[in-house]
Design goal:
The structure holds three protein chains of three kinds. Chain B is of the alpha+beta class. Chain B contains 16 helices and 18 strands. The longest helix of chain C has about 35 residues. In chain C, helix 2 crosses helix 3 and helix 3 packs antiparallel against helix 4. Classes of the chains: A mainly alpha, B alpha+beta, C mainly alpha. Chains in contact: A-B, A-C, B-C.
Chain lengths: ~325, ~525, ~300
């Protein structure tokens, strides 16, 4: 892996992010309605033309789109993502509050999903075609097929009716202020996210495990008379590790942008809710900032996964670009 | 990798334990077990306060909250009658062109300073100053001068008689502020009023703590304080009530109340408010220009069926006038029984629209939960006379510009009412009203009735005029009036002494305690 | 949208099929011969029939409101019960399935044609075109899929076709990658090289030799993309975007049912079940296709 290759990839990453920034900017400006009304609600109906123009000027909305873009883009280099029109708070603060919630949710979901998914995948692959394989695969398929919003909705309704318990009834407790209180609020949303995730991990594990189990060194290991459990965990799983780690890494990048529905149903103040509110209220700065953050994370994670992959697997070193 | 299986049961057990823990220790109110005067009431609602300056408050929850910290000169009783507030009495003189108010003695601001006519004058002058950009300034548009004739007398001089002025003095927008705070420019930093509660701590978007004002002129509150919690999702407020997290929950989605029948932990109080659901018609467009067509639509709508479906049978039908102080037959002037499909069909045929037509109907989403449901019911009812509502659901920021430019044939709306019918309609149906465009039509008769009503303070005469107004509105049918909006108060079993008001004010919180 | 199945991560690994030899059964036969494929075909077949039935109003009118009998449970008159407006849930689920399938098929059709063509062309032509398409694909991949679909629907406006276009944009890059990869391999293969030597035109090479060889991985991807499209459409309408009331949509029905659950469980269960059956069916069909196309996976 040459330095030149690394530099090329890094430049490509920046190009991608610039593309993302431009696309978000354009799509946002295509939204119907206007920001001023979004902020003032029905009161906006009573504004006259002069007041409206003054407000647009105050929020910098009267400048040309190109000027607005350059202003925002310039701000990026000073760590300034702009100010939310709706709340008047800098977007960096809003993200600072929301990011830990989503990160924690993603980490918890991973903690739940990875062990379950890996074990289930190994169980299924240990005897392909047998009853255990079919039932694990069946459950996994259901895990993928039941929409997250259904699982979340039913969980919330069930907790409330059966246990008179609402994870979101209190104000949100941050991890810093109360570990237990925070975990109580995050557990169920993380479980809901974990269902689909575990199914994905299971499927990847199963196929990677089967692939590895058929290789020569496993036959050799068995031939040496090693204990079956040692063969399974030491040899097969170890070698099936690369695709699993890749999958987990990529899933994590996606989770940052994919917790929206769960955050909405469980009323958690994370990035997803921030985004949805931003889109619905046409709070440009919020949507631009969050998207760039999520896309940036995704691109960096992918890059990292790619580098690790290349280090681990010499065969991929020769190929110029990822296919 | 290889060590994962060893942890399997550990993680599983931890998850189970956490889950059980979560069930067992659901959040509880922060008031501990205190009752009576040391009780701290926890109130859950969906929105937070947005600004701290009463003159600039527009959001409902802001008005609702600041009204607990500040007092007005005049107050309104549950029947819509004006009663003394910081003014003990008022007299209208000079043929309606002046109002003299006597101010209450011995009232103190939370900062300890006494309330005098200088504070009252400074408060009203501040609202009228264009630099303040006060929302309430339009209410005082007829006031030409405010004079403090002595420490406890305030005289307002008017450009012309304005009967609605007294009602305007009872709104949160005209709250009495301290002259000292106005001068220091601290109004929007820390609320400091004469009201029953003092401003304590505020965590924006999360919770607000108010503490009881022991020196309140109308009696010390029967509790130690109120904590407002912001829970954006109404379903969470309901389940929070079920788990005993709040003493009072305020919600608006009628569907939620379905699950509460026979719940032992709380009482559900459905409170009809002054806001009203209405189908606005644009009388400047197409078939709707024809009065007979508009009346046919009004006749075809079956209000009680709509209430059954949208509000599960628990809302109050209303005509044009929503104020409890002025009550009339809501269908007088309509010329038919509401919900009479056959009559409506005949009217449409006589107007030459037997085959019906399509109406571009805008519906606001996001702001209130029932609009989409109501729109679907109206669509089904009007379908029976061949009038097709083409529904277009729009977010607030899309809906409002369309609405204010009257870019619709019909609009499913929830409009704000008032105890003074003049204040309810002058914006829409007077010739210089700020919302005359979305009103859908201009009618000189409506304009003159409204102006007449506001130029007299004689109650009997006003009753007569507003009765005529109600009839004239039905006759013209610019809109189809449906029913009053409803707020639901979920009261925990221990909560005593709280009553809701038509304006959804929480002024009675000061009388509430915990048994 | 919901399960957040990452397009990049789930590009189905499919071995290039050997050119078809005489005597081998046709692809549909091989799919049905596969157990998963058969179940998938049956499930999807049932859904398509139900959706078509809703078109000719075999059951009740999905929009008809009944004043008496709101929120009633399953009965002889209303097989799956009624909703808040007294509307027949069975009719609404059927119409919802139709709406769902319509959006899914349209969006995947757009994504397949546009993405597939771009992928084949850029892979075949290489050079500047390949670089531009590659960069665009990278940009679209970097977006959180949820956000992209959400923002596009908000910008394009309501209506089933706009929803389909929004979902298509999200999934187009997958088809670019799925088709480009095999094209690179095929381009270097002996028979295409031989064709070049023989002086065949580029278009002939493209259509006669390259396209047939990338159609297999695309077929598998189509089945999977349909299932994501159904989940995405349901998720969007759950959030209030996409299909608008009173028109039935599975996601919207679940959203409306929230407040009545668990008391009126039928308002939530049946639309949710329809989504699950569709997604399971399409995934199994995808498995079946993959097995049918991959000679190695026979009898595994």
């Amino acid at each position: 892996m040459s330095l030149r290759y690394l530099a090329g990839r890094a430049a490509g990453m920046l190009g991608t992010l610039l593309g993302v920034a431009v696309v978000v900017f354009v799509v946002l400006r295509a939204l119907p309605g206007d920001t001023i009304t979004a902020k003032l609600g029905t009161q906006a109906a009573e504004l006259d033309a002069d007041q409206r123009a003054a407000l647009r000027h105050f929020y910098g909305l009267d400048a040309s789109p190109v000027t607005q873009f350059l202003r925002w883009f310039g701000g990026l280099f000073r760590g300034d993502l702009g100010v939310s029109i709706d709340t008047g708070v800098p977007v960096t603060h809003l993200i600072g509050d929301a990011l830990p919630v989503t990160l924690e949710l993603a980490v918890l979901a991973m903690i739940i999903a990875v062990p379950v998914g890996v074990l289930a995948g190994m169980l299924a692959a240990s005897r392909p075609g047998a009853a255990r394989d079919l039932s694990v695969q069946g459950v996994g398929l259901l895990g993928l097929a039941v929409p997250e919003f259904v699982v979340a909705t039913v969980t919330v309704a069930w907790l409330a009716s059966a246990f008179a318990y609402t994870p979101s009834a209190g104000t949100f407790v941050s991890l810093g202020s109360s570990f237990g209180g925070n975990l109580r609020q995050m557990l169920y949303p993380a479980l809901v996210l974990g269902v689909g995730l575990a199914a994905t991990v299971m499927r990847t594990t199963r196929s990677a495990y089967l692939e590895a189990a058929g290789s020569d060194f496993v036959r050799t290991a068995r031939g040496k008379g090693l204990a079956e459990s040692r063969v399974r965990f030491r040899h097969i799983l170890h070698n099936a590790g690369i695709p699993i780690v890749t999958m987990v890494g990529i899933q994590f990048g996606y989770l940052l942008g994919g917790t929206l529905v769960v955050e909405q149903v469980f009323a958690l103040p994370g990035l997803g809710r921030l985004l949805l509110d931003g889109i619905l209220h046409q709070d440009y700065a919020i949507v631009q900032g969050v998207t760039l953050l999520v896309a940036g994370t995704f691109v960096v994670v992918n890059f990292a996964v790619d580098i690790v992959y290349r280090l681990l697997d010499p065969r991929t070193r020769s190929e110029g670009r990822r296919a | 990798m290889t060590r994962i299986p060893a942890r399997r049961w550990g993680i599983g057990a931890a998850i189970l334990a956490l889950g059980a823990g979560a069930m067992a220790c659901s959040p509880s109110p922060s008031n501990g077990d205190k009752t009576g005067e040391s009780a701290q009431l926890v109130v859950a609602r969906t929105a937070d306060v947005d600004v701290l300056d009463p003159a600039r408050a527009t959001a409902f929850s802001t008005n609702q909250t600041l009204a607990l910290v500040y007092d007005r000169l005049i107050q309104v009783d549950p029947d819509g009658k004006l009663i003394p507030g910081l003014a003990t009495k008022w007299t209208v003189g000079d043929g309606g062109k002046s109002v003299t108010l006597t101010l209450r003695d011995g009232v103190k601001f939370h900062n300890g300073q006494a309330f005098t006519s200088a504070d009252a004058k400074a408060s009203l002058d501040r609202i009228m100053d264009p630099k303040t950009a006060a929302v309430a300034s339009s209410y005082l548009a007829n006031v030409s001068a405010v004079d403090a004739t002595d420490a406890h007398t305030l005289k307002l001089t008017l450009k012309q008689p304005d009967a609605s002025l007294l009602t305007a003095l009872s709104l949160t927008g005209t709250s009495m502020l301290s002259a000292k705070d106005i001068k220091a420019g601290t109004i929007d930093k820390k609320p400091d009023g004469t009201g029953p509660y003092k401003w304590k701590t505020w965590k924006q978007g999360q919770e607000l703590d108010l503490s009881a004002n022991a020196d309140y002129w109308n009696g010390k509150p029967k509790n130690a304080g109120v904590q407002f919690r912001v829970i954006p999702d109404e379903a969470s407020i309901v389940s929070g009530m079920k788990s005993g997290s709040f003493n009072l929950g305020i919600v608006s989605d009628p569907a939620l109340t379905k699950q509460l029948k026979g719940n032992q932990k709380m009482t559900l109080v459905a409170n009809p408010t002054l806001d009203y659901h209405v189908l606005q018609l644009n009388g400047r467009r197409g078939p709707l220009k024809n009065k007979t067509v508009r009346r046919a639509i009004a006749c075809a709508v079956n209000r009680s069926d709509a209430i059954d479906t949208v509000y599960f049978g628990q809302a109050k039908e209303t005509g044009p006038i929503v104020s409890p102080a002025y009550q009339y037959d809501g269908t007088d002037g309509l010329g038919c029984k509401a919900g009479d499909t056959a009559a409506a069909k005949k009217m449409l045929a006589s107007a030459g629209y037997a085959k019906g037509f399509h109406l571009k109907t805008i519906v606001m989403t996001g702001q209130y939960s029932t609009s989409t449901n109501l729109a679907q019911v109206l669509q089904s009812q009007l379908g029976k006379i061949g009038v097709t509502l083409d529904l277009d659901r729009q977010q607030t920021n899309v809906y409002v510009p369309n609405w204010s430019k009257a870019n619709f044939d019909a609009a499913v709306a929830l409009n704000g009412g008032s105890i003074d019918p003049y204040l309810q309609y002058n914006r829409y149906f007077t010739t210089d009203g700020s919302l005359k465009v979305p009103a859908g039509l201009t009618d000189p008769k409506l304009n003159s009735l409204l102006r007449q009503a506001n130029s007299t303070t004689d109650l009997a005469k006003r009753k007569q005029i507003f009765g005529d107004l109600s009839k004239a509105l039905n006759d013209d049918s610019p809109w189809v009036w449906l029913f009053r909006n409803q707020t639901y108060y979920l009261e925990s079993k221990g909560l005593t002494g709280f009553t809701a008001t038509p304006s959804d004010s929480l002024e009675n919180l000061r009388l509430a305690g915990l048994a | 949208m919901t399960q957040e199945m990452p397009p990049a991560a789930t590009v189905a690994p499919v071995a290039l099929p050997a050119p078809r030899t005489a005597g081998q059964p046709s692809l549909p036969r091989r799919v049905v011969a596969d157990r998963n494929g058969l179940i998938g075909v049956v499930l999807i077949g049932i859904l398509v029939l139900v959706a078509l039935a809703s078109l000719v109003h075999l059951g009740q009118d999905p929009l008809a409101q009944h004043r008496t009998g709101q929120l009633t449970g399953p009965s002889a008159a209303h097989w799956l019960g009624t909703d808040q407006f007294g509307r027949d849930i069975a009719a609404r689920v059927a119409a919802g399935i139709f709406a769902s399938l319509r959006v899914a098929v349209a969006s995947v059709a757009i994504a397949t044609v546009v993405g597939g063509l771009l992928g084949v062309l850029s892979g075949f032509a290489g050079g500047v075109l390949d670089a531009v398409v590659g960069r665009l694909t990278d940009v679209l991949f970097a977006f959180p899929a949820t956000l992209l679909a959400l923002a596009l629907v908000a910008a394009l406006g309501h209506g089933w076709f706009n929803t389909a276009v929004a979902i298509a944009v999200v999934y187009t890059p997958i088809f670019v990658r799925v088709s480009r990869g095999p094209v690179l391999t095929v381009r270097e293969s002996e028979y295409v090289k031989a064709g070049q030597v023989l002086g065949f035109s580029r278009s002939r090479l493209l259509f006669r030799h390259v396209l047939p060889n990338v159609s297999a991985p695309i077929a598998v991807q189509v089945a999977l993309a349909l299932s994501w499209a159904i989940l995405t459409e349901a998720g969007l309408s759950f959030l209030g975007l996409g299909t608008q009331p009173p028109n039935p949509s599975l996601g919207l029905m679940v959203s409306d049912a929230r407040n009545f659950f668990p008391d009126a469980w039928w308002t939530l269960l049946f639309p949710a079940l329809a989504v699950v059956v569709a997604v399971v069916g399409l995934n199994l069909l995808g498995d079946g296709l993959r097995n049918a196309l991959d000679p190695r996976s026979v009898q595994r």
